[in-house]
Structures are given as structure tokens and as C-alpha cells.
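Changelog note: in this version the structure field was regenerated for every chain. One regenerated record is shown below for reference.
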Amino acid sequence: MKHVFLISNGEEDVFNAEKYFGEELIILIVLDSRGMAAGEADKRIEALLKKANSLSLSLAPRAVSNRVVIQWGNPYDELQRCLEREEAVQLL
């Protein structure tokens, strides 16, 4: 079964994701543009991508299939859409 790991604020604990061993881990980055100041978006995207790419690289030595997906919107709504679209469950 596929799993989705949500990264939306950069404070997520990646311990379970780093230990993941399953069909595929989808690393979902959701950017909520509400309240984001002009010029802040680039820095935030860069920080979240760095975290996601680091997680992806930590899975590589164990040949765990994974991919990074970036969405704009409400984190809860985008997570639900991703779970439905990918027929996956959330990795907590």
C-alpha cells in the first residue's frame, strides 16, 4: 500500500518516514499561501523542498520508492485529495 507523508510547516517529525518500508512513500509538500508575505514564498518553498529531498535521499539506500509532490492550498484539503488520488493512507 502507498503512504503519504505531509510536509506543510517544516516542523514535522520525519522519524517514521525515514524508517518507512512499503510500496511507495509520497512526500507531499503543501504550501498554504494565506498569510505568506511577498518574497517569503521562495524561502519557504526552498526550506520545505530541502526537508523533502533529504528524506527522499535517506530512503534511497534501502531502495524505497518515493516521490515528492508539491501542492498549493489548504494542507488538510490537499492531503485528502492526494490520499484519494493515489489510493493511499497517511503516514503518521
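Spot check on this record: The two ends are 14 Å apart (CA to CA). The first strand starts at residue 2 and ends at 7.
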